[in-house]
User: Which sequence fits this backbone?
């Protein structure tokens, strides 16, 4: 099993972000929308997949939100991104980044590429 990034394929902002990651960050992982993923096989509820990006490690551990972004950066094939992933994983930075992540996630329908279908319901 390889690392896998799971995102909301119905969200234009999420899709644009993943395309950026594929082109610029070049992560060492599979990338797939949650809509085409057997979420039960990784013990993830659909509500979680709708709420945050997920990183499924090769060992089966599931990371979400800012931890998933950190793991994505750490897996980069480009020298520039991995150090940013390490910084993002530091507890004080991760705490602040988590607040920013939630703010962006709640407003992703307003972000570039976002549409009404990107709106995240309450959580």
Assistant:
């Amino acid at each position: 099993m390889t690392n896998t990034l799971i995102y909301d394929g119905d969200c234009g902002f999420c899709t644009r972000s993943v395309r950026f990651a594929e082109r610029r960050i070049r992560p060492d992982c599979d990338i797939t929308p949650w809509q085409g993923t057997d979420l039960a096989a990784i013990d993830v509820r659909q509500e979680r997949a709708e709420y945050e990006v997920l990183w499924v490690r090769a060992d089966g551990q599931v990371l979400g939100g800012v931890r998933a972004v950190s793991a994505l950066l750490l897996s980069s094939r480009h020298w520039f991104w991995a150090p940013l992933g390490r910084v993002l994983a530091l507890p004080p930075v991760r705490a602040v980044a988590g607040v920013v992540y939630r703010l962006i996630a709640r407003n992703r329908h307003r972000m570039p590429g976002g549409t009404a279908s990107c709106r995240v319901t309450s959580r």
Remarks:
- Helices lie at 12-25, 46-51, 66-74, 81-89, 91-106.
- The mean pLDDT is 93.
- Residues 4-117 form one domain.
- The chain is about 45% helix and 10% strand.
